[in-house]
Write a structure and sequence with these properties.
By secondary structure, the protein is of the alpha/beta class. The protein contains four helices and four strands; from the N terminus they run E-H-E-E-H-E-H-H. The protein has a four-stranded parallel sheet, with helices on both faces. The two termini are 17 Å apart.
Length: 96
């Protein structure tokens, strides 16, 4: 099973990543930071929740998704919500 985790560089998301690894899951993290450090075996996918194409690409080959949004919530709420709606629709279509 391969799992995509958004927010995997944050406090909560990094704990989700560790927990998934302990359970034997293959983990991919969507990150905006190309220099982000992850535990051994974690695959990174460069992208942004506000970019539906990058999320769709990161989901390729994944069976599950953990959508972890922490401090970014204010950023998402304060910016135009249309890109987020597009991303969420894209997620729903990709996962169904």
């Amino acid at each position: 099973m391969k799992v995509l985790v958004t927010g995997g560089t944050g406090k909560t998301g990094s704990e989700v990543v560790k927990s998934l690894l302990k359970r034997g899951a293959a983990v991919r993290v969507l990150t905006r930071n190309p220099n982000a450090k992850f535990p051994a075996g974690v695959e990174s996918a460069i992208g942004d929740l506000m970019d539906p194409d990058s999320v769709r690409s990161a989901l390729q080959g994944c069976d599950k998704l953990y959508l972890v949004v922490g401090s970014q919530a204010e950023e998402l709420a304060s910016s135009s919500r249309e890109p987020l709606r597009i991303t969420l629709r894209s997620l729903a279509e990709t996962l169904s």
